[in-house]
Amino acid sequence: MRLAADADPERWIPVTGSLGLRGRRHRKAAIGMLLGQFNGAVGATPRPGSGFGAWALSQAAPFLMRKADGRVLVWTWKAEPELIVAMASAQELTPQLRTARAMMPMEYDDTEEFRNPYLGAGEKLVVPLPAEQGAPPFATYTWDTGTHLITLQAVCADRERFGTVIAAVDEIARTLRTVDDLSVGESGPVLRLPPA
Q1: 170 burial via Cβ count (<10 Å: 0-12, 13-18, 19+)
Q2: 41-95 pLDDT tens trace
Q3: DSSP conformational letter for 75
Q4: Cβ–Cβ under 8 Å, residues 139 and 114
Q5: What is the dihedral angle through the alpha carbons of 61, 64, 68, 71, rounded to the nearest 10 degrees?
Q6: Residue 115: which H helix or E strand, with range?
Q7: Residue 13 and residue 24: Cα distance in Å, rounded?
Q8: Using an 8 Å Cβ cutoff, are 43 and 9 in contact?
Q9: CA 52 to chain CA centroid, nearest Å
Q10: CATH numbers and ranges of domains, the chain
Q11: What is the pTM of this model?
Q12: Residue 98: is its pLDDT beyond 80?
């Protein structure tokens, strides 16, 4: 299963699909922001050379994403790459994944319904003030297709500006969809039913 979405090019830069020098600055900034937020969440202090780590990961990221074959899409904010990163992914709904979702902490139950014209009714969870000290604000959108869990997660580096960019993440979430692989020359019409 592969994913597609229409992110506004005036606001977002795709990290996936950008190889070499194209998009390098945005990849590096997005990875650096995520590494910094992770270090802050676990209480680690930034180490010298962590900029090199972000650069190295930014060079490897497109190849890793290409290997994921469309199951992962990543964008970063065009005007300020360090501000917010959004990542969509598709995971097969295994019994282990269902169990892990059922055992999530209580604050993850505070979801609201979020409709997508392609995926139907899903859930949206916005956590502007995480319980963990130093953890960044985030939003998570999920859709259960029966066989796969489609997720869009956005992590913001600035608590005060989180509310101003979340509407742009909503726009991506409304365009997120799965892409079917149809064989060339496949006979017969394909009937598409809207989501329930």
Answers
A1: middle
A2: 444 444 444 455 544 555 555 555 555 557 788 888 888 888 888 989 898 899 9
A3: E
A4: no
A5: -10
A6: strand 112-116
A7: 11
A8: no
A9: 24
A10: 9-42+53-179 (3.40.1000)
A11: 0.75
A12: yes
Amino acid identity at 67? K
Cα angle for residues 41, 94, 132 (degrees, 5° grid)? 15
Task: Express each pLDDT in 7-19 by its tens digit.
Answer: 999 999 887 765 5
> What span, in angstroms and rounded, lies between the C-alpha atoms of 127 and 154?
10
Q: Which amino acid type is present at position 72?
A: V
Return the number of other C-beta atoms located less than 10 Å from residue 73's C-beta: 24
**Residue 133, phi-psi category: left (phi > 0), alpha (psi -120 to 50), beta (remainder):** beta
User: 128: which DSSP letter?
Assistant: S
Distances (CA, A) of 43 to 58, 130, 138: 23, 15, 18
CA distance 11 to 196: 31
Q: Report how far apart, in Å, the C-alpha atoms of 80 and of each of 27, 29, 54, 156 are.
A: 12, 9, 16, 11
Amino acid at 145: T
Longest Cα separation, the chain: 60
Closest CA to 30 of 61, 68, 63, 8: 61
